[in-house]
Design a protein that fits this description.
Length: about 300
């Protein structure tokens, strides 16, 4: 694949990751309603089970053709996502939602650092600076207070796992000019990821949460969460990360916090404080820096 083709696909990938952040941010309202109706494991089961079915109905031939050679990647990524979400849910017994949002946001900074550690690839000072700016913005969106506790530790481990998941997706699906097409298919990986998480949630739900009781009250929110926040977003994330470096992808997806804040204001009547507005500005600035970094590098090289 030539450089121009990769550059075009990279821009489309960034737009795809932006859509992921948008849907996950809007899904904040639906999830807030659904957690009052379902326990965590059963809620994840209801999200990813139908998501896997939808993915198979849309791409049956592609999944049947490629599932064997993508089995390891899908199981690993699905297992990491299950562990991350499990820790995040467990931490809520010890920590407030605002404080957790800030600590979880550290994955934005952890991704370039872990990628540097695992792959020995320095992400660049511009990317590190953008990640730090984004982290500062996340801190302004939340209101962390109080001493370190068990919830803080569990949430930080959750952030580490989210960072590892992003790196794992990049590892298995990344396309470069030198390597050409990746060995793994992103749709097949997404399907196996969904199935893995669904089976793990089914086992955990039966063991720890009792039988599932379906509620008619939350069907519209559940449908939105399945179609847009699960089937669409996670598949789009895996496809988009083929052409987007993990540090870059993490910064773009951090816009989820901004979209979540705006959806809370528009749909739940929450207020926007000056502190939160400043946080949104810093996150948007970090995304802009990450997007302009290739052009800034080109300008520096030409001067």
């Amino acid at each position: 694949m030539n450089h121009a083709g990769l550059k075009k696909k990279a821009l489309l990938a960034d737009f795809g990751l932006l859509l992921c952040a948008l849907f996950w941010g809007l899904g904040f309202v639906s999830m807030k309603r659904l957690v009052s109706l379902y326990t965590p494991c059963w809620l994840l089961f209801l999200r990813f089970g139908p998501g896997a079915i939808l993915l198979f109905l849309v791409f049956p031939r592609r999944i049947l053709t490629n599932w064997r050679r993508n089995l390891t990647a899908g199981v690993i990524i699905g297992g990491i996502l299950f562990a991350a979400m499990g820790l995040q849910t467990a931490a809520l017994n010890f920590i407030g939602a605002g404080r957790q949002a800030f600590i979880t946001a550290t994955y934005v900074l952890l991704v370039p650092l872990l990628f540097w550690l695992f792959r020995r690839v320095f992400p660049g000072w511009t990317t590190l600076g953008a990640a730090g700016l984004c982290l500062l913005g996340m801190g302004l969106l939340a209101d962390p207070s109080g001493p370190l506790n068990t919830g803080d530790v569990l949430t930080f481990l959750c952030a580490v796992l989210f960072a590892v998941q992003i790196i794992a997706i990049s590892h298995y699906t990344r396309v470069t000019e030198k390597e050409g097409q990746p060995g793994c298919d992103p749709i097949a990986i997404s399907f196996i990821e969904f199935v893995t998480l669904t089976l793990l949630c089914l086992a955990a739900g039966l063991l720890f949460e009792g039988p599932l009781h379906l509620q008619s009250e939350g069907l519209p929110d559940l449908a939105f969460t399945i179609v847009f926040c699960t089937f669409g977003s996670y598949a789009l994330q895996v496809c988009s990360q083929r052409y987007s470096p993990p540090s870059h992808a993490a910064i773009i997806m951090s816009l989820e916090a901004v979209f979540g804040l705006l959806s809370g204001i528009l749909l739940l009547g929450e207020t926007l404080t000056l502190r939160a507005a400043a946080g949104c500005f810093l996150i948007l600035a970090s995304v802009l820096i990450a997007e302009l970094e290739p052009y800034l590098k080109k300008i520096r090289n030409n001067t």
